[in-house]
Fold:
Amino acid sequence: MTHKILLTGGAGYIGSHTYVELAAAGYEIVILDNFSNARPDVLDRLEIITDAPVTSYRGDVRDRALLDTIFAEHEIAAVVHFAALKAVGESGRMPLEYIQTNVGGLLTLLEAMMAASVWRLVFSSSATVYGDPEKLPIREDAQRSYTNTYAFTKLASEQILEQLAAADARWAFGTLRYFNPVGAHDSGLIGEDPNGIPNNLMPFIAKVATGELEKLSIFGDDYNTPDGTGVRDYIHVVDLAKGHVQSLGKLIETGAGHTVNLGTGTGYSVLEMVRAYERACGHELAYQIAPRRDGDIAACYADPRLAGEVLGFEAHRDLDDMCRTSWNWVSRRRNG
Ligand code: NAD
Ligand code: UD1
Structure:
């Protein structure tokens, strides 16, 4: 039987890659996106990649009437909820907007799901819920905390889902804690496309590689890490997307909720990322050492074993794949 899935934020970076993997797995998909952080031509690109028309609604996940319309017009089996605001710095300047969109949006979605008797949801959480981790690699049972408003919204969302699951056994949630998604689809047609100056490392390096930005500032070289620069668990966005297919499959087939890390289990430093990207783009990248960024931690990488046990998840793409596909995407986009 073909299942139909609602993808909120499906035109965004992770949502668009997940769309492709869900389509390949035989799901029918409906996208809801307000395009606050995505370009509408992503939908055309998804049609090219999947060679099939895309069904989409332009609107806000907080619009209850629109959600009711979608659930009335489509027999939705489950929801994958990506729609959210995600810039840490901005979340401190606009806390209400972040709480309203990320927590309020989730509540409205859950109310509409309940009214339509749709009980399965995959939720985009983040390694940010671990705060400054006490032990590495990070296991799912590590203590949770938050150090900024964005992280607060993810932790609060996880806790809301836990309350619902405890109160009513019909609910089943796949809470996926992403580490650092990078890279792009092999086609070079979709990828990460932040407006303005990127906050995150890989999109920043990519813009240095294309010449749009002059040089990278490395935020600190005196951390307690092998080369002194920050270490993170970068995961290829296509591997991450496949994790959603596995999570949905588990929810739909067994109704068993789960909370898992989606990472590779390997940490790379900022300098290792720069070197890997240089191999991909074929030229040197300028950088300078700058002061530490407020709120940054030295190292963060996953223990990915639970996702393997529960979902059969395993990341297959390595650091060179991540840089090569990113470079393919940004250089194609630069050339139109
Ligand atoms: P993104 O900004 O590319 O995608 C989010 C999408 O949601 C965008 O297309 C945007 O237009 C849409 N959107 C935002 N607010 C909306 C609203 N109110 N109504 C409808 N649509 C709305 O971000 P992404 O990197 O693809 O992230 C997807 C999810 O994963 C988010 O929940 C994010 O917090 C989470 N996450 C991302 C990362 C990361 O590093 N990219 C890490 C951990 C968790
Ligand atoms: C950031 C978010 C985190 C979110 C994650 C998603 C912050 C403080 N945290 O985490 O909440 O879940 O993205 O992927 O924004 N770096 C540089 N120069 C740069 C940019 C980054 O040296 O211009 C370094 C950082 O100090 C860090 C590493 O690169 O050591 C990765 O940074 P980034 O891509 O922003 O991700 P996180 O800090 O892990």
